[in-house]
Amino acid sequence: MKKNYKLRKGYSALLLLGIMTIMASAQETDQTRIKALFDTALTQGKAYDWLNSLANQIGGRLSGSIQAEQAVDYTRDQLDSLGLDKVWLQPVLVPKWVRGTPEFAYYETTPGITTNVPITALGGSVATPPKGIKANVVEVQGIEELQKLGSANISGKIVFFNRPMDATLINTFTAYSGCVDQRYSGAAEAAKYGAVGVIVRSINLRLDDFPHTGSMDYGDIPVAERIPAAALSTNAAELLSTSLQLNPDIKFFFKQNCKQFDDVTSHNVIGEIKGSEFPNEVIVVGGHLDSWDLGDGSHDDGAGCVQSMEVLQLFKKIGYRPKRTIRVVLFMNEENGLRGGTEYARWASTTKEKHIFALESDAGGFTPRGFSFDCSPEDFEQVQQWKTLFEPYLVHLFEQGGSGADINPLKTEGLVLAGLRPDSQRYFDHHHAENDTFEHVNKRELELGAAAMASLVYLYDTYGNAKSK
Amino acid sequence: MKKNYKLRKGYSALLLLGIMTIMASAQETDQTRIKALFDTALTQGKAYDWLNSLANQIGGRLSGSIQAEQAVDYTRDQLDSLGLDKVWLQPVLVPKWVRGTPEFAYYETTPGITTNVPITALGGSVATPPKGIKANVVEVQGIEELQKLGSANISGKIVFFNRPMDATLINTFTAYSGCVDQRYSGAAEAAKYGAVGVIVRSINLRLDDFPHTGSMDYGDIPVAERIPAAALSTNAAELLSTSLQLNPDIKFFFKQNCKQFDDVTSHNVIGEIKGSEFPNEVIVVGGHLDSWDLGDGSHDDGAGCVQSMEVLQLFKKIGYRPKRTIRVVLFMNEENGLRGGTEYARWASTTKEKHIFALESDAGGFTPRGFSFDCSPEDFEQVQQWKTLFEPYLVHLFEQGGSGADINPLKTEGLVLAGLRPDSQRYFDHHHAENDTFEHVNKRELELGAAAMASLVYLYDTYGNAKSK
Question: How many CB atoms lie within 10 A of CB A264?
């Protein structure tokens, strides 16, 4: 017995040593693979050149526009050139809203004395009458204030929503969330009190002259009762507010001829490397291909698209053959409908595949700081153990929270959703505005994000998630 | 005895509770103070406006220039306006090197067929002869290669140092360190082998058209034997290298008329809040006021200067009265002599004061990621305990390493030196080049750095360092 026990003890020790060796060697392999992904991204990455084409050859890619279709063709061709196992287009019916000729606005302090201000129609807004709207202005800090003021103070006027972003919040996305209701629902709410139009302070922390557009919704307001809505630059909002304090009788004029057309067919662009062991287990990595029509959509979300394509390029380049199917999805119509994300999720639910991990990059192409995970506690525990692998690249802020708008419809139990979290300080300076352009993206920052995404995808491919293991 | 024991046990428990309460309340006070510093910086900071003036009213501030003197006057006046206890100028003798008229360069593939390339004289270089220099080019990857080639291959030629920064290094300052010997010592070394001039690839990870200047040194080469040195843009370096592969007989021409004048008197700008309890214990916070003459020196190091001034402004604004003396020092002549830092340290050694902490910001005005500490193990242990206070602001990468060039001469046992460490990805795109300009600084990123610096200074003021406690 004693001998046996000793033998068993020796055997156990050997087994433990064996397991430890395997674990240490797995850790080493992971480190080596991740280093290869980062090195390759920083020296042979294609993301920046792809973004250059998307931004400077094509430009702003609003759903239903010619540019959106050019972007579909271009990215499909580029994915084709990577030698993936399959590349295809998934049809999606998208809304088609068109800005028309440039908007024009001024405020009038006394009849004939006017100051022009930069303005842009909100996406989905109706036009003003052809001659524009001129009316008195009532400034509010938010939707709640409308009720207090009531129809007596609002009817016949233009409502000016001027609550700024909270500058003390370190995560600027939190500050954005605290303001966006004014843009999204302001017109629907103001219309209930008889307002004739709505102007909204741009959701931008910086004081500058760029008006920022973005989606809005009329809710259940009948078409005939919808009022036009536009965004003012932050500088113009400050100026108008100060001027109103001096003279509450100021009149505001604006004119826009945007129009909603019938839905048209567009596409999600999809490419994949088939899994060698578990082809029916799918990892999705994506961004959204559409953008607003102002600027060229480099940060929102050209960056996320080319980073997602880069993940597959990097796997090919370092010769990594995934066990699971790695699929890039460039979603159409995130900005004003989310039709691409919705359609992909619908289609995914009809297949025999099982999605285990989905990752979106839709927070700009800035230096990556970490990831946000929408997952079970067990899954979050798993990713926490991978943090040290990301520390050498300074991309190790792992938090629980949202992921990305386009992948959110996929949400099911056992699926891990995640979003890349780049540094957020500059994002809203460019978001949905004319200055969301290629020159504000730094090649290294963009590639570091792509490499971090590829590393996380590699780990999920290798180890599965907490449920799939 | 038993009763007594109980009493003592009760007393001990009370004491422990008391200490824990004090510690918890100290932690709370620290959190509250640090939040006040960040909130105030983000909403009432002056750093960005100061930088606007330094950059756009004054511009590049090379030692000995009129702009450097304007910057001395401007920052002294601004410090005066903060109501500090003392503001003064410390005389420093500085070198005066002047660029002269713009440099001109081309390479000639066959006689008469030339391609112009962007070039800039290195700081401290001698001029070319008035008609310029034209010679064959020998490309090398570094100083070591000179010896292998020997005089036979170098004499009469222009040496072209073309070793690029290593793109795979995440910290770009490490990549910079791996290249800068070519710029600093290239001319001195090449002259030993009879080279007639030196051109150096700009130390920039990005491929673009900006040549980047920087300091160089002739060592013990006699004045008459010194050869002119200049930097090429990275794009030009790539082009020249490719062209040389096709045709090794290419001739390179460059012409520059820079000149070294006699030293002139300039100043460090100093302001302080006197310590209420330990006025002889000093905390220094600073950056360098001089910059290269290309661009307006916004990131290098206008940012560091205005962040350092902001530290004192924030203390005034939140009504914090420091126990120790908090002194801002804007050092003159970091770029081409370090005379300001040297002089301040010399003067400091003659006073009865004791410096306990010195912090420099000289790595750009980008999003702060943490601090680097040059200190004893006990001191590093102390700062590690403060990390959690910086986590809400995402400025918590604390590492051991260098601090800043200007404060380094202060180094003595028992003094903690530190440097702010902002995100480094974009820094060398702008460093010492025409595009180091105000529009590339983001207000929030700049202010976050200032608030982080103020927070660290506050903690050292409150708790002292490991030796001074």
Answer: 15
Write down all domains in chain B, each with its CATH number in brackets. 36-97+262-463 (3.40.630.10), 100-257 (3.50.30.30)
Strand order in the sheet with B86-98: B86-98, B259-273, B324-331, B278-288, B354-360, B416-422, B368-374, B397-400
Segment B305-358, tens digit of pLDDT: 999 999 999 999 999 999 999 999 999 999 999 999 999 999 999 999 999 999
| Optimal mutation site among B44, B423, B446, B448, interface A, most CBs of chain A within 10 A | B423
Max Cα–Cα distance, chain B, nearest Å? 107
Which residues of B are the active-site residues? 334
| Torsion angle (degrees, nearest 10) of CA A154, A159, A162, A165 | 110
Chain B residues near residue A38 by CB distance under 8 angstroms = 168, 170
When scoring B444, B445, B446, B448 by the number of chain A Cβ atoms within 10 A, the one with the most, hence best to mutate, is: B444
Q: Among B43, B206, B393, select the one facing A167 at the smallest CB separation.
A: B43
Neighbours of B221 (CB within 10 A): 15
**Structure tokens that stand for A187 in this block:** 């017109």
Residues forming beta bridges with residue A114, ordered by sequence position? A108
User: For residue A175, what are the contacts with CB-CB under 8 A and spacing of at least 6?
Assistant: A165, A166, A167, A169, A205, A428
Distance from CA of A44 to the nearest CA of B (A): 10
Number of neighbouring beta carbons within 10 Å of residue A83:
11
ipTM for this model: 0.94
Amino acid identity of residue A280, one-letter, is N
